[in-house]
Amino acid sequence: MTSSRTSTRHRSRRRQRTVALSLGLGGVLTAGAALLGVSFAATTPPAQPNANCSLTVPADPLSAQGLATPYTLTATNAAQGPCHESNPDQSAFVQATVLDPATGALSVYNPLVIDKGTTPAIAPVLPTLPANAVVGIWFGYNGNTLSLRGQTSAAKCVGGTPNGQAFGQFAYCNAPAFFAAANTALGAGKLTIPPLGTGRDGRTCPTTRDFGLVDQDQSDNVTAEYLATGKGRTAQKTAKNSATLGGGRRMRNTTALLNGSDNLLLVDFVDPALGCTPWTAPDLADPGSKVTSLALDELQAAKFQTAPIALVPLNDPMVAENNRQSVRKANLYRSGVDQPPISATANGDPKAYCTNLAAVGRQRIALDQPFTVKVASPAAGVNLFDFLTQRLAGSLTSLGCQQAPPTPSASATPSATATPSASATPTPTASATPTASGTPSAKPSATATPSATGTPSTTALPTRPGTTATPTITPTIPVPSTAPPACCGQ
């Protein structure tokens, strides 16, 4: 996603989530505020779809041919029902970032996901990779637990603790090697990371490690997007494919699939509200286009985020193992997003994380209120200020941090003239000691009605039935009564 995207476009795509998002939400979010972690669907999903699906990693996944080979989605346990990429509660996403070690140049490629037994609506573009390219791959998911099958060893894929539990909605392949090569190029002066810039609030623009942006499970999911036809077949989201699928009589029912995350909240909502510009790189599938990626966000955050720096804490539900804190699992997760391992200086202390999230997060949200209260959020009828306030409270709840309930602004309408009440300052506070282990959250869902031109048009679902509504939360990190799910075929 480039900085030229308008907030209107993203409002229409993300406002319809109806449960809780990958932005971490605990039980205090309203149904409407729980958006951003799912996609648009080309088909109507069942009432209770199978939340645990698997992706089959193709042969030689780090090569050009491997990147262009679709990943296939299937049910992890067929007895729980089928999995379909066009189902908003089951969509999985793959995103690669490529480094040219000779020049330090970065590029992005989003491998396609299709249902097992189907073919792409349009064949993926075969990317041209530089000599000795270093490729990292990251995964996002809109359900509960995504498992990896296939050629996982060849690509050094990690989806959780080996022979233990999965992270949940996140996995990666070859990420540590990618970040090592990128940091080497940075040190050699070959790679230049653009500065963050200054926002309208007079502060440095936020990153994915800013306590003013993060939630209970930071640095998860990706910014990849796909297209889906009315029959559930998928294609890479490129200008050419959009024109082809949107212009033909047989494929006018085309919708966009996307994976919500802190990243999408940052680049599609917070950055535009503050006048900030996200870092983008050339899209190898779409000549002339530049897009964001998780890897770009993490590299920029690693270089420019100042203290206090938000790093994956031990009470993050995605690094829980059998509902207990796990240093090993936290280190596996951190290594996939260019974060230092647990140490004396980066110890993942839940107390410190709770305190910083409540204090620093609250301060930044309050500071940015004049800008965020005027614009839309991922939730229909909720301005960005209220959304961030509710999300902060939900994250503190899920992390087990003691807190006071948030006070939303008087206006929930995302209009340019929205005026908050005098009590609109967010008020969540946290004690130094988490009260319980974090309660994971689930992804919300959305549907979209395609227009006759092929451009997704949405019909907002009832997203805010009441300011005290509490969504039903399904654990992201399951705690099974028997053996935990295998993380990734390791």
TrEMBL record:
**Where is the region Disordered?**
399-490
Q: What is this protein called?
A: Uncharacterized protein
Regions of compositional bias (Low complexity) in chain numbering: 409-476
Q: Which domain of life is it from?
A: Bacteria
